[in-house]
Design brief:
Blueprint: E1 2-6, E2 15-19, E3 29-39, H1 41-48, E4 64-72, E5 84-87, E6 90-92, H2 98-101, E7 112-113, E8 126-130, E9 134-136, H3 149-163, E10 171-174, H4 182-191, E11 195-200, H5 206-211, E12 216-219, H6 227-232, E13 239-244, H7 251-256, E14 258-266, H8 281-285, E15 290-293, H9 299-310, E16 318-323, H10 327-335, E17 342-346
Parallel strand pairs: 10-11, 10-13, 11-12, 13-14, 14-15, 16-17
Antiparallel strand pairs: 1-2, 3-4, 3-8, 3-17, 4-5, 5-9, 6-7
Helix pairs in contact: 3-4, 3-9
Bound molecules: zinc ion (ZN) (2 copies).
One zinc ion binds near residues 93, 96, 99 and 100.
Length: about 350
């Protein structure tokens, strides 16, 4: 098969579209013919060697797959050849540990992230994924854009619904609103009946942020404090929920926008060694605030995202589709922060 292979860490050019043996299919795995794979900042960090957990090179990157099953392992019961499926970021979770049994599979200590280890990943014509990390795509969804359902949408559903417990009528701040995850957070918060304030540092992304449904847009220079701007559009009250998609550079402002009883969910922090942030503990205590974090998506959350997409309530935002041989270009766009929405890679025509 053809695949994008990176033999070692380095610049985007270390990724080459080349011939490689198809992955072996374990008894609990399905072999998926890839229709499209999302390009995610995760792969940029892996490729650069900047990811905390490290990776096992050589690799085929990619974990946001949509495709059709062409072969199933002997132990697979819930899927058959011909099923159209979307991957849930991981090649496998154990399904047996305490975290998995509590529905917290995102924190399974034995999980294997798809595309981080060895020559099996989504930037390829074929990929092997365990049945515990696949979900069938409902027949009402035909677009390949659904590839990003888990990473770009499911993570935000996890944060808003299951971690922040967003309630009807509350006010939500989405930071980094113009990025691939932020645009989906805006849509989910609107569907949930929230008033949405979107913070972005990019003038070029304002239109997309507005189109996603933001009620208010706060445009500030990168690294500049935006708390007073957010407080100004909430009559000084602040926000009930803050989705913090940026990290340390934004965190102090994000906390300062929290209303009484507000909940902040930290989703993004892309720096390997982020700077330490100062905390005004009296300010925190006086407002009864909650600081939590959320990462990735459970299978149930992914199923719920697909239901929302099928009903037309949430739309995956994909702004560019490139052939896999141009994976280096896709990574350059991600590294430069130019992408409004997500980038999809599709196998080159053979
Ligand atoms: Zn991703
Ligand atoms: Zn587990």
């Amino acid at each position: 098969m053809k695949a994008v292979v990176a033999l070692e860490t380095g610049p985007p050019e270390v990724m080459r579209w080349t011939d490689v043996a198809p992955p072996a299919v374990a008894p609990d795995e399905c072999l998926v013919q890839v229709e499209a794979c999302g390009a995610c900042m995760h792969e940029v960090l892996v490729r650069r060697g900047d990811r905390k957990e490290g990776a096992g090179f050589p690799i085929i990157p990619g974990h946001e797959v949509v495709g059709v099953i062409v072969e199933v392992g002997a132990e697979v019961t819930g899927f058959a050849a011909g099923d159209r499926v979307v991957s849930n970021q991981r090649q496998r979770v154990c399904g047996k540990c305490r975290e998995c049994r509590m529905g917290r599979e995102t924190r399974c200590p034995r999980k294997v992230f798809l595309g981080d280890i060895g020559l099996n990943g989504g930037y390829a014509e074929l990929v092997a994924v365990s049945d515990g990390s696949l979900v069938k795509v409902p027949p009402g969804i035909t677009s390949p854009h659904v590839a990003i359902a888990s990473c770009a949408i499911g993570t935000q559903l996890n944060a808003l619904r299951d971690v922040a417990h967003l309630e009807l009528g509350e006010t939500v701040l989405v930071t980094g609103a113009g990025g691939g995850v932020g645009l989906h957070a805006i849509q989910l918060a609107k569907v949930s009946g929230a008033r949405v304030i979107a913070q972005t540092t990019s003038e070029e992304k304002v239109e997309a942020v507005r189109a996603a449904g933001a009620d208010e847009i706060v445009l500030t220079a990168r690294g500049q404090d935006y708390a007073k701007d957010v407080l100004a559009v909430t009559d000084g009250r602040g926000c009930d929920v803050v989705l913090e998609n940026v990290g340390a550079v934004s965190f102090p402002s994000a906390v300062a926008t929290l209303a009484l009883h507000g909940r902040l969910v930290l989703v993004g922090e892309v720096q390997k060694t982020p700077p330490t942030v100062a905390a005004n503990l009296n300010g925190w205590r006086a407002r009864d605030i909650t600081i939590r974090s959320a990462a990735s998506t459970t299978r149930r959350q992914l199923e719920d995202v697909l239901t929302l997409v099928e009903r037309g309530l949430v739309t995956p935002v994909v702004t560019a589709t490139l052939p896999m041989s141009q994976a280096p270009e896709a990574h350059r766009i991600l590294e430069n922060g130019q992408a409004t929405g997500r980038i999809l890679l599709v196998p080159d025509a053979s």
